[in-house]
Amino acid sequence: MSRQGKPISVRAGRLEFLKLNASKFELRDTYHVVLTLSWPRFAAFVLGAYLLINLIFACLYMLGGRCIAEMPPGSFPEAFFFSVETFATVGYGHMYPDTLYGHSVATIEIMVGLFGMAAITGLIFVRFSRPTARILFSKCAVIAPFDRVPTFMLRVANLRHIPMAEAEFRLTFFRDERIPEDKEPVRRFYQLKLQFDRMIVFPVAMTLRHVIDESSPLYGMTPESLRECDARFMASIVCIDPVIPAPVQTATDYSYEDVLWNRRFVEIYEETPDGRFSVDYGRIHDTEEAATAVEVTSRNK
């Protein structure tokens, strides 16, 4: 990679990475870069490209002298608007190519307009049709006894008003660990096993649970030890939007500061008299003190 002066920022949840000496843009990645632009930037890009193309062809018409019939000599505005009409293939008939040079430039512009409109239409269609996952994660995670066993828990909710299909949940834990070969700690990653990691239908909200037993990387850890190893958690959901249908994915991360000990999530489900279940989305993030405290057990070395 060639050396670059300005670092490139890449965010993953609340973590930010700076890429050094990495190329920021490659021509073959133009399509991907345009799709990742925000809507205001995308609109500015389309408008800028449109104006630039018409300005270039207006200059070419100006260089051709009297190549366009009935166009006032030296009138750049007339050349520009003739370019706009030619680019859109409308052709009002007031001005028209009158020389071989004029016909050649107009032909090239019409071809550019056809390909350009097709490309912009495709980009707009992809941006509108691209599915997004409206999944809400709880603002915090909790560690509390569940079924008398210390359990790491977080809550997720489907914000769309249709059930998502084939939902798959993943939870990754990473922390700093020291190894004999190096004086500096290294980052270790662990896949935490969930009590259930797949749901055929994900209609509303649920709590993901990881049991902290002797096989768990969290076994024997305390709030202090999580802080010392700069522990973090990454939660991910992949599911299928049945309306499109297409897979959607979203993720979030939690630091050791976001983990509440001896707290549990409040109940948000309530059965109504007619047999339905109400789910209070206003209490997704709410927690309460656990009835029993987590017993810290040291891992045997």
Architecture overview:
The protein folds into 2 domains: 37-129, Helix Hairpins; 135-289, Sandwich (Immunoglobulin-like). The strands form 6 sheets. Strands 5, 6, 7, 11 and 14 form a 5-stranded mixed sheet that branches. Strands 8, 9, 10, 12 and 13 form a 5-stranded antiparallel sheet that branches. It has helices at 30-35, 39-63, 76-87, 100-129, 223-228; strands at 8-12, 15-19, 68-69, 96-97, 135-137, 141-146, 149-158, 164-179, 182-192, 198-202, 205-211, 232-241, 246-255, 259-261, 263-265, 269-271, 277-279, 287-289. 20% of the residues are buried. A hairpin with a 5-residue loop joins strand 16 and strand 17 (277-279). The longest helix has 30 residues, at 100-129. Helix 2 (39-63) runs antiparallel to helix 4 (100-129). The protein has 301 residues and is α+β, with helices and mostly antiparallel strands.
| Individual helix count | 5
- Total number of strands: 18
Radius of gyration: 30 Å
Assign the CATH superfamily of the largest domain.
G protein-activated inward rectifier potassium channel 1
The CA-CA distance between the termini, in Å, is 44 Å
Helix content class: 25-40%
Query: Remind me, CATH topology of the largest domain?
Result: Immunoglobulin-like
Low-confidence stretches: none
Please give the CATH class of the largest domain.
Answer: Mainly Beta
Principal-axis shape equals: elongated
Sketch the topology as an H/E string, one letter per element: EEHHEHEHEEEEEEEHEEEEEEE
Structural class: alpha+beta
Looking at the overall shape, the CATH architecture of the largest domain is Sandwich
Number of domains: 2
